[in-house]
Amino acid sequence: MTGIYDDPWAYELACSFRDVGAEAGALLGWCAEHRPDAAGPVRTVLELAAGPAEHARELARRGLTATALDLNPAMCAYAAREAGRAGVSVEVVEDDMTAFDLGRRFDLVLTMLDSTSHLMTLDAFVAHLRRVAAHLAPGGLYVIEMSHPRDRLSDDPSVSTGWTVERDGVHASVRWGEPTDLLDPITQIADDHVTMTIEADGATRIIEDVVPYRFWTATELDAAIRLARGLDVVARYGDFGTGADAVALTDPEAWRMITILRPS
């Protein structure tokens, strides 16, 4: 059975409710706010656990030199193909987000869409952060986008586990997680059941998968950062917004946990 991550087109469709352009604008806005003046303009970006690499593609379109890294070969092939179709240059690297060594540093590093949930242990998260620190240029930023903790710790989650999308005449309904997908209280891992129903040209296709998900609290993230050393938290947000549009993590409207790190 083909899983959701083995079908990059379907995965990108499932996530197409996101406004990648606006999010890229926020990323660059945070760079303007939190990078020291001496660091200069942002020229290079590395997207980790990039999947289809939509943010890397968008930032490349805006003139940055972009690299996208993912462990899944199908995702890497798709990201390279879509970058070519869009007429933008993105270097795609198939590698592990806990062990990569690209031999150069970047002004901006990203991990989006809660992809750190694939880091199942504290050791893996610390290894990941150390690799990021080794690849950040002086004054560079690392932006981690994670789910808001209330999604797993309260009866009033920020986002629904079910949604619909439409793009280019294709309609899809997505369920990412069921009420019975409970966190293991020891490991904080849940096996999230994913069902995606795609309707196009009178045909229906169903993708079913089980995706292990590791929930990380804000305090656990802080602990991993301290253990890794070399990175400091400079800001936290609850949505993609800058300046007057910034949303605090504690705001009732917050729906993500976005942490911005900088070399110590």
From TrEMBL:
Native source species: Actinomadura montaniterrae
Keywords linked to the UniProt accession: Methyltransferase, S-adenosyl-L-methionine, Transferase
Domain of life: Bacteria
InterPro entries the UniProt entry points to: Methyltransf_25, SAM-dependent_MTases_sf
GO annotation (BP), single: methylation
Domain Methyltransferase: 45-140
SUPFAM superfamilies, sorted: S-adenosyl-L-methionine-dependent methyltransferases (SSF53335)
Protein name per its UniProtKB record: Class I SAM-dependent methyltransferase
Entry GO MF terms: methyltransferase activity
